[in-house]
Amino acid sequence: MQRLKFNSEVVSEILRLRPDIVESSGFVSYAGGYRGAKKINIPAVVTVHEVWQGEWVQNMGWVNGLVGHFFEKHYLKYPFDRYIAVSNFTKEKLIKKIGIAKEKIAVVYNGIDLNLYKTTRVKEKYANPTILTVCRLVVYKRVEDLIRALNILKPDFPDIRLKIIGTGPRENYLRNLSKKLGIEDNIDFFGKINDTREMIKILKRSHVFALPSIAEGFGMVVVEAIAAGIPYVASDIPPIREVTMGGVGGLLFEPKNYKELADAISKLLDDKKMRDKLSEAGKELVKRRYTWDVVSREYEKVYIELLRYRG
After folding, report:
1. Which of 37, 145, 234, 286 is 20 to 30 A from 138 in CA distance terms?
2. Does domain 114-289 correspond to CATH entry 3.40.50.2000?
3. 62 pLDDT exceeds 90?
4. Where are the domains positioned within the chain?
5. pTM for this one?
6. Which of 84, 120, 41 has the alpha carbon at shortest distance from 217?
7. 32-48 burial, b for 16+ CB within 10 Å, e for fewer?
8. For residue 109, which of 291, 245, 305 has the smallest C-alpha distance?
9. pLDDT of residue 311
């Protein structure tokens, strides 16, 4: 009911504003954005962050998975004038899983406010070797692999710390796992942090960022870690490989292989020169591809093309 009410309000607001284009970014806004745009005969654009057709049950369980599978396909089948995929990986899924014509899809990567990262400063790193992960605590993020990796690392790094930012239904399971392994004192569960600058400070003070997820549409947190100047260890899955151009700025590991994850983290913690080298390479990557200046120009191209076509 809340989503129905929200989409009704979206339509009303579009009718009030009378814009030239409507762009919907986020699953819940697709229906309202499309309907509002067509009521005043203007182009409707949708930004698609990921497509999970055939993966919903695996990622979210039977009940939520079946519901998500239905609504995702239903909403993405609306005849939007243009689809913006946040990666080529997502574009291919739109073509193969939803049946969208490739001519209707543009790829525009997500972006960050690089100036915010530059102006958020910290005095020093954490005293203890620190790994950070930022994600929803759900099955497909595979945070348990990171906890198991920490257990392998502890003998060589007794003071090692893992900081987990995020909330979700797997939190109790992850807390219990850390207790079972006897490493609960090495792990900090921060919950959700809404202050962006505070998040950046934690990133900058950490030594390694880790993302063991097996499902991403883009992997924005990896780009954020790179922008903060810390190397990452992330699952070698297609969207992460694409976004990092094959691992620029960090190391990739085989998904679900927590022993390989531990090895990669160990390499970075043992070698400051490697960390610094990867950090510099990553910063250059962000400047070239993921600043708002770069991203906004790509969006502008899509909008101008649609308006010209409309006449």
Report:
1. 286
2. yes
3. no
4. 2-111+292-310, 114-289
5. 0.89
6. 84
7. bbbbbbbeeebbbbbbb
8. 291
9. 57
